[in-house]
């Protein structure tokens, strides 16, 4: 399979995503500059990485969503392409309208950087098929604006369509005040996924606290692409 990782001005997790896709998963991976709108149909998954695109001015992701490549990402997603937005990438997906809801500043008003326990709510997505429903993943978060918000009707719709993919495992684990402890959601079609925690920062046991739970997210993507390839013969 082939990954694309988009770099925006201010991205700081793009090389980490490249490393996991290319070195850990051993898949062909290309870096794309945000100014270059292009046909993305050759790629099997586009990664919008974490960071501080445009210095987080206005609102996180609010300027990056006007980057020329975002028109390409929207076309690609609308045609069923897999898109994962991690942290700032999630924020950009919200601002671009590819995922519902909005991000507010953490309720602590502080940038929060720590490991949290996440519960896999939906294991039947291209991004979580290597997990069990209810499984606990331990992943790091690092953000100032991760307080996910959606109105009541929107929340009902997320629940009804199984779009809540990962939640902070308990109220005490919630690092930002997100509604319903939401840490990551997908679109109705399940091909676009955004999450605040950073799976790319813990995909190898050699890193950090020896955990590699993030690997399951990338392995799920690979599994999904292989499976779909087999179905196409
Ligand atoms: N690591 C990230 O992508 C987090 C940065 C993010 N822009 C924030 O809310 O602080």
TrEMBL record:
Any one Gene Ontology BP term = 'de novo' IMP biosynthetic process
Pathway given for this chain reads: Purine metabolism; IMP biosynthesis via de novo pathway; 5-amino-1-(5-phospho-D-ribosyl)imidazole from N(2)-formyl-N(1)-(5-phospho-D-ribosyl)glycinamide: step 1/2
Q: What does this protein do?
A: Part of the phosphoribosylformylglycinamidine synthase complex involved in the purines biosynthetic pathway. Catalyzes the ATP-dependent conversion of formylglycinamide ribonucleotide (FGAR) and glutamine to yield formylglycinamidine ribonucleotide (FGAM) and glutamate. The FGAM synthase complex is composed of three subunits. PurQ produces an ammonia molecule by converting glutamine to glutamate. PurL transfers the ammonia molecule to FGAR to form FGAM in an ATP-dependent manner.
The residues responsible for catalysis, as annotated, are: 87 (nucleophile), 198, 200
Subcellular localization:
Cytoplasm
Q: Tell me the HAMAP family matching this sequence.
A: PurQ (MF_00421)
Major place of residence: cytoplasm
Q: According to the UniProt entry, what is the EC number of this protein?
A: 6.3.5.3, 3.5.1.2
Report the GO terms under cellular component: cytoplasm
The record's Pfam families line, in alphabetical order, gives: GATase_5 (PF13507)
Q: Which reaction does it catalyse?
A: N(2)-formyl-N(1)-(5-phospho-beta-D-ribosyl)glycinamide + L-glutamine + ATP + H2O = 2-formamido-N(1)-(5-O-phospho-beta-D-ribosyl)acetamidine + L-glutamate + ADP + phosphate + H(+); L-glutamine + H2O = L-glutamate + NH4(+)
Family matches, as InterPro entries: Class_I_gatase-like, PRibForGlyAmidine_synth_PurQ
Q: Which gene is the coding source of this polypeptide chain?
A: purQ
Identification of the protein by name:
Phosphoribosylformylglycinamidine synthase subunit PurQ
Instruction: Write out the GO MF terms.
Output: ATP binding; glutaminase activity; phosphoribosylformylglycinamidine synthase activity
Q: Which organism is it from?
A: Selenihalanaerobacter shriftii
Q: How does it assemble?
A: Part of the FGAM synthase complex composed of 1 PurL, 1 PurQ and 2 PurS subunits.
Q: Which UniProt keywords apply?
A: ATP-binding, Cytoplasm, Glutamine amidotransferase, Hydrolase, Ligase, Nucleotide-binding, Purine biosynthesis
């Amino acid at each position: 399979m082939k990954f694309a990782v988009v770099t925006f001005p201010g991205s700081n997790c793009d090389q980490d995503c490249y490393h996991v896709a290319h070195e850990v998963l051993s898949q062909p991976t290309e870096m794309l500059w945000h100014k270059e709108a292009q046909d993305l149909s050759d790629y099997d998954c586009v990664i919008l990485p974490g960071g501080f695109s445009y210095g987080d001015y206005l609102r996180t992701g609010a300027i990056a969503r006007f980057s020329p490549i975002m028109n390409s990402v929207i076309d690609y997603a609308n045609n069923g392409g897999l898109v994962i937005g991690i942290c700032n990438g999630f924020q950009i997906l919200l601002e671009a309208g590819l995922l519902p809801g909005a991000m507010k500043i953490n309720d602590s008003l502080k940038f929060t950087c720590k490991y949290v326990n996440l519960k896999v709510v939906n294991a039947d997505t291209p991004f979580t098929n290597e997990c069990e429903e209810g499984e606990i993943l331990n992943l790091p978060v690092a953000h100032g604006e991760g307080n996910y918000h959606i109105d009541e009707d929107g929340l009902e719709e997320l629940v009804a369509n199984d779009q809540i993919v990962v939640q902070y495992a308990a109220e005490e684990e919630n690092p930002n005040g997100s509604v319903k402890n939401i840490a990551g959601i997908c679109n109705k079609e399940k091909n676009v996924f955004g999450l605040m925690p950073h799976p790319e920062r813990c995909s190898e046991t050699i890193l950090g606290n020896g955990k590699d739970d993030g690997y399951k997210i990338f392995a799920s993507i690979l599994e999904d692409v292989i499976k779909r390839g087999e179905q196409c013969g």
